[in-house]
Model the fold of this input.
Amino acid sequence: MTDAADLRRRTTDLLAAHPPGATDRLDFLRARFDAGLAWVHFPEGLGGLDAPRSLQAVVDAELAAAGAPDNDPGRIGIGLGMAAPTILRYGTEEQKKRFLRPLWTGEEVWCQLFSEPGAGSDLAALATRAVRDEDGDGDWIVDGQKVWTSSAHLARWAILIARTDPAVPKHRGLTYFLCDMTAPGVEVRPLRQITGEAEFNEVFLSGVRIPDAHRLGDVGDGWQVARTTLMNERVAIGGVRTPREGGMIGVAAAAWRDRPELRTHDLHQRLLTLWVEAEAARLTGERLRQQLSEGQPGPEGSGMKLAFARLAQQISGWEVEFRGEDGLTYDDWTLRRPESVDFTGREAGYRYLRAKGNSIEGGTSEVLLNIVAERVLGLPPEPRTDKDAAWKDLPR
Done:
């Protein structure tokens, strides 16, 4: 059984063999992965040691104290939080060995090709088609359009769901693929947001060939595979580990302390309420992470993502109001294509505008409320008239 002492020893050995100050960053990250110290709860040989997930903090603390480089998780969050746990659960051994190492080191950035112009909240209604090339080598030919794709302009690979059987109900006719973003027929176009930036994209797929070896799970089982991705996505968005008074509430509290001349009784009372709610959400996130087993969260992650979106919008709104006219300033409206989202290192105006997307991305708050109601609280589901109808017969 791997324990904290064993992990400290392994970390010490890694640092001795690859001193951070004298080792190339990528070489260090590769060595860390090979030593099983990337995801300690993953299997041996795949970046882990089959250790309890909670022991990852031991490794991270030791490496941080030694000044070791990290893998820039803000830049590769989709790969770490969504693609990796899905590949681990449903991938073949060949797929796990091929994709997990460069995913974790950041050598290959991932994006998520799920939402479409006509299938966002109702994701299972998606229309992107994948047809088997039976006359050739068995590749899949994919045609369609995806939208709201974060980091598509950076990505080397994508997790993709497409319709492979339109003659069955919408949830049963989907298949899950790993798509090469450099393949012929993949076109990425920027989507400019309210912030002026374009971290989102449209992706057009025109005759894109995907080898059957890059199919994840069985044909027609794509919705089940996608549910694993979506549950992990909501934990990744709403359950980010932060210290006490970290994140956006920390920025708001710092502003309160630094600008006493702007304080009012009403703003003080609202800040106290937000601080308590943020701390309750942080502790709930810690409890949720401790409950995870084998990287497969349940529907409770939807509640965390709901709380994150609501708090981010309320805190950013409070900060703009507190700062007065200074809260309305914005640094640059030039179209940019950032590599990550920074909620704490930018000005209040940016935080206020960017937080508006939190209740849409990763599942709208309305859809997540349904998930919590039905799958956490056990309330009766809403009537669904299209549940048993073939997708091709549904009105669009």
In short: The beta strands are 110-113, 129-132, 140-146, 157-163, 174-180, 186-191, 200-210, 215-216. The CA atoms of residues 246 and 278 lie 9 Å apart.
